[in-house]
Protein: Fibronectin type-III domain-containing protein
Organism: Silurus meridionalis
Amino acid sequence: MAKRALSPLAVWAAGALPTLLLLCARAACPELCECPRAHHVLCANRGLRAVPETSRSVRVLGLAGNFIGNVSARALARYGHLTRLDLQFNQIGRVHPGAFEELVELQELYLGHNEISTLQPGTFSALQKLAVLYSNDNSIQELSAEIFGKLDSLVRLRLDRNAIELLSESLFKHFSSLKFLHLESNQIHHIHHKTFFGLTKLQFLNLSDNKQTQLLHTTLFSQLRSLLTLLLSENHITHISAHVFQNLKKLTKLSLSNNRIVQLENGTLRGLSRLRELTMNGNLLTEILAGVLEPIVRIERLDLSDNRITRIHPAAFARLTRLKELDLSNNQLMRISGGAFTSNAALLQLDLSGNEWRCDCRMEKLKEWMVETRARGKLLTAHVQCHHPPTLQGKYLDHVNDTELLEELTGSLSCRAENEAEREPGRQEPPGVEERLKRGGEKEEDMETQDVQRGHKKKKMNLRPRTAPRSSAKASSSSALLGTGMFQNVMEENTSTWELSDVLENPGSQNDVDSMAQKPGVGVMDACQFNHRYIANVSVNNVTSDSATVFWSMSEDTLSGGLAFRILFDRFGHSVRFQRYVYARGSARAVVLQELRPHTTYITCVEGVVGGALCQVAPRDHCAGFITTSPAAESDIRLQHVTAAVLAANALLILLVGVVWLRRVLRRRIRNRKSSTHAHVRHMYSTRRPYRAAMATTCVSSEFSRYQSGRVLAEDGDLIQFPPERFFDPRRDDDSVIT
């Protein structure tokens, strides 16, 4: 009875105890606040004007977005176990020096976006475990080492967007663990050369948007041996002395943009051997001298845009073999050496826009370098828009042919002298340049005379008039070589791909003309007629996610010498046109387009290049479309094959197991059937116990006591007796014989 009486009481206690605990917890949570977790009190945006009081143990207190005006000495006395305190976006103008004395376990303190103008000495001295301190976007004007005390655990400090003017000596001497320091958007015009002493673990330093005018002392950053990022943009820096950055051995990013730097000295960048990004846009640089950029051998991105650069030494970028992005836009460049970028094998993006380029013979080598680099698939973007002479204004250098480049200074000694001066030691002038210079003013009769003197026999041929001059045809073929090196030509008979010089320098020599004229049935020299009569059966096969093979066929009596094919391809249906071309020799009948975009519709066309000339009419009769596959689809197909193979193997294995199991079952049933037959006989006719008439009589009388039968019972002589050896089972032991 006692146990039955206590059970309802126990059930009531078990249900009421959690309810009481929940009520107590709600009662401990301050008014207008939320306590979603244990030891968490969140009071953000509740219109509070003072720190709320609580009797519970709180570790996280959020008070952002209220109207708290000051933090008194005893306001946080009840929060001795706090680890995170957020007081951002309030109206705090004053913090008592003893406000944080009880918060010995505090690790994160956020005081940003308030109205704090001064901090008294010793304000943060009790926070020995503090790792994060935000005091950004306030009105702080002065800082001293006594304000912070010894914060050896501090990792991140934000003091940006204040009104700080000076950084005194050894200001951060007790910040041995500091890694991130934000001082941007202040009024700092003077930094003591020992301000950053002791910050041996600092990795990020932002001093941008201040009033710095000079960087003179070599010891200013000497202690920052772990620094990775240094931002000095948007200051008033006019001069940086040599060796200022010499101890920043690990620095990878340096920003000096939007300053007033006029010139870089040879030792300014010394020590920055690991620098990968340098931005100096928006300065007053007028020239880039040789040797200035030599220390930054690992640079990958260099921004020199929006300066006043008029001259760049041909060897200025010679040591920058890892340079990938170079921005020289919006300067005052008129010409640049063609060999200025020959050492930058990794260059992918070159921005030369916004300059006043003079497109004459002195830009010929730059054009050759750009075309050759694009042909190898190295240069992705590089555009030079001509401003001079007026006849070429607005035209891109890629689309200016050699004759137009030579028009202004044809045969000029100064032009040839400058080209000779820029020529690399041991490098010979490409063949054909001098010949083009000489032939610029010659007539057709003079050229015929020279050909006869060389031993060439010129035959008269009935040529169809061309729709454009030969010079314009050369220009179109030259400009069409964009991106040809990004694709691989599949050539028949193991023939090699034409080089760019074969197309530009020798567009159909006299020997080729003679050999073409001697071939039977060859009288077509016009590219348009050639495309119409000889090219056929354009098709695309072997399409994958990034490549496709273009096939075409021709009749057997086509041209051989001076013949090439240009395969145009572009994305179909896109408003932004980005045509690309692949060139193949006359013997080729297939070209592989590589580096395509997956799951994209393309259109490709094939046209002939006869004697270096192209048809001005688009070859729409010899085009084909195709859609690249998706990498996921290809992987799905391969996965399906693997899955099918695994399923087939599993099915075979299951079949084998089933056959073995069925065989065992059948054998067991046959064995049981044989053994059951013998057992039946033994049970029926066992003679181990002799038959007794009395027992039979008793059994019959007991079983049929209520039934009267007229049948005579069998006598002893009528019973059949069998010898016991007949029913002996040799497979069993004597003890197991059934009785």
The radius of gyration is 47 Å.
